[in-house]
Amino acid sequence: MKPRTQLRFLSIALFALWGRAGAEDLPPFVVSPALLGKPAASRPVPRAATQPPAAAAATQPPAAAAARSAAAAPGRAAAAATPARPGRKAAPPAPQDPELLPGATRITGDRVFGRQDTDVAAEGSAVLVRDATRVSADRLQYFELTDEVEATGNVKVTRGTDEMSGPHARMKVQEQVGVFDSPRYAISRPARPPRPGQAPLLPGQALPASQQPISGHGDADSLVLEGENQFRLFNATWTSCKPDRPDWYLKAKELDLDYDAEVGEARSGTMWFKDVPIAYLPWADFPLGESRKSGLLSPTFGTSNKVGFDLTVPYYFNLAPNYDDTLTTRLMGRRGLQFRNEARYIDPMYKGIAYVEYMPDDQVEGRSRYAGSIRHDQNFGGGWSSNVNFNGVSDPRYFIDLSSRLTLTSQVNLLRQGSVTYAGGGWWSATGMLQAYQTLTDPKTGATIATPYKRLPQLTLTANRPELPGGVTFQLASEYVDFSHPTFDEGRRLTFYPQLSLPLQTASFFVTPKIGVHTTRYELDRRLSAGDNSLTRTLPIVSVDSGVTFERDTQFGGRDFVQTLEPRIYYLYVPYRDQSTIPNFDSGFYDFNFAQIFAENVYTGGDRISNANQITTAVQSRLIDPQTGAETVRAALGQRYYLVDQRVTLNKDTPARTGKQADLLAALGLTIAPKTQLDTAWQYNPRDNWTERFNFGFRFQPAYAKTLGVSWRYRRNYSTDPANPNGFRDIDLTGQWPLWGNWYGVGRYNRNLRDHRLTQGIAGVEYNAGCWVFRGVVQHLTTSATDVTRAFFFQLEFNGAGSLGSSPLNVLRRSVPGYGKINDGSNPFANDDEF
């Protein structure tokens, strides 16, 4: 399951343990190791060392007397330690002194003195070292029996990459229990390794949040060490900014940090930004890592012309590692209060997400409103699986009024579907499905929206059995559907389409002849059009598909390439059958493209099968980098030639084609330079000598968070209804680019040139200060022919500590191809299901 963002409302993520390691080298004093708490026979014999010029003293516990080194002088410092406790998530170890045995303690100073097996004191550049822990001070005293050290004056404690400094500290070295007075601390944890299969970083891309080191620093009146990975700070501050520029920081009366459970808790806190208090946090709990935890998530607020002031406060329930729940309260200034509950779950055998939204009283519409969705995938094992996708809203304008997503506001039919599939047969599979739609007809525009047929049920059986005797392949496509509609013809359709093909293939060419018989049976319950209630249609279908691939080595622009030439010829024959009395349940026109010109039928669905006696030819050429296999150039040209006129049409009002040539298709894709692509496609009508469609796209992305895109689309309008044209002409400009300093610009301009209307406009700026980011974005969204939504997003994001405002990240990711979060290479917690 993709975890949610774990920063809580009233919470600031604090990452605290020991301080950052010092850079100074340890002085070369004598090492005299011993171990506490083990029998004398198990202790290693200390090694003799040369007496340094500085004073030193050594003592050991009574049990270690038999293991003392003859070279250890009475004035030499003692070493005493026990191994670190296993199973803890401690600070990363620092490089060890090769002359110091594991678990041994070394104490040095300008003057060292003490009592044998009791205590050792050091003054002047005093240092205590054990494993990854180093304590330095003007004066320190080590109590060997209790394993305590008391340090006074310029105290610095380092462990791995963590550091604390202050005037006084007393602590048990091994147990890490004690008190540090008035400390300044720097706390960090190492970066996590990339997840398996994670994509490599782009040039200039920052590390994802999950791979960035957890670090921060601050000061406190007192820091209580309560054991390894357990800390309590009083009157403390914390920030992830650089020490010389703490633009923001959290100040709390009390902070509790538990790095074993990866949970922190703050009481009586205040968030400061640019020396101005911006949020009071009476209580907050937060995760110290990637683990999820129940609690209030960071609130968001914004504004738009549809809902007014918009405040969202979510509460997250971490119910189990594989399922969770989020309850969200949304307050809209113009419309009132809305509640949303979303549940997510995942298991090796199933996964899903479900949400429900409810608004008791929309103050604009004067009624309650709701929306809901359930998506569930189940694997029962043994080849059995199921799927549920059910969506619904209270009224057709729900998304138009309450959503800022173009994909939602443009919906006119909401799917409601459930299916069960068996695929355990190896070469065959079967599916049973129930399907219906909720049609959203906007009452304000009155636009006519066709209601799709319900399939109650649809049963399919498909098979693909290759390598039969003689190399023959058997395929089967069969279907039973019961169509239901409130106003049109209703009935049942049974389709049975067996096929035999003989693939002949080598490394350079292929030829595949195929023959099949398409049989369809109709039984109608309600007939509004003319014709019988029982109908049968049988059609033989014959085709031959063939192609050749030529290759040669060539050079272009001083580079070596492999050039291909790939011609393809496809022949199709389907005899004519009168289908004018057959109802049209689900047939329509396919989009005309390179895939469709090699298809058996120009119509979708199963109610219309066009007569055909035609040849399709196409040729493709590519330039391929022999080292990487990447395509630098791809060019394609294709056309269909008709040997007979078209006689089967969708309905009596659809004109039949009479020309001998289909439209000419051309496509070109170029990688002009690294990270620079150009794609264009053209559909030309040779009968009338005009362009049917033309698309052009250019994208330049030299590095992360640096992208520019231009696209232009054109489709000729052939609708006879002026109110519902099916042509379009629009331009789309997108980009994200550094402006100056740490400022970035981001935007999108998508304009309908036919209607002279802005479809979507986005303009915004971002500023990356290193430890915080500002984003300000304005969005213009045309939600219908007469409605426009305008929204403003304002966000302050504090690295490692959540954010304030309304996040525009989901809007930018969906609307600007190649958009990159400037302070984070990726956001694994992004929730694209939020409205």
TrEMBL record:
- LptD C-terminal domain spans which residues? 368-743
**Which Pfam families does the annotation name?**
LptD
| Keyword Membrane attached | yes
Task: Report the subcellular localization.
Answer: Cell outer membrane
Provide a GO CC annotation, any one: transporter complex
Which spans does this entry mark as compositional bias, Low complexity? 46-91
Q: Which keywords does UniProt give here?
A: Cell outer membrane, Membrane, Signal
**Membrane listed as a keyword:** yes
Signal peptide residues are: 1-23
Q: Which GO terms describe its biological process?
A: Gram-negative-bacterium-type cell outer membrane assembly; lipopolysaccharide transport
Membrane-spanning regions, if any?
A: none
What are the boundaries of the region Disordered?
A: 39-104
**Family assignment from sequence similarity:** Belongs to the LptD family.
Quaternary structure per UniProt?
Answer: Component of the lipopolysaccharide transport and assembly complex. Interacts with LptE and LptA.
Question: What HAMAP family does the database record attribute to this sequence?
Answer: LPS_assembly_LptD
Q: Its function?
A: Together with LptE, is involved in the assembly of lipopolysaccharide (LPS) at the surface of the outer membrane.
This protein is called LPS-assembly protein LptD
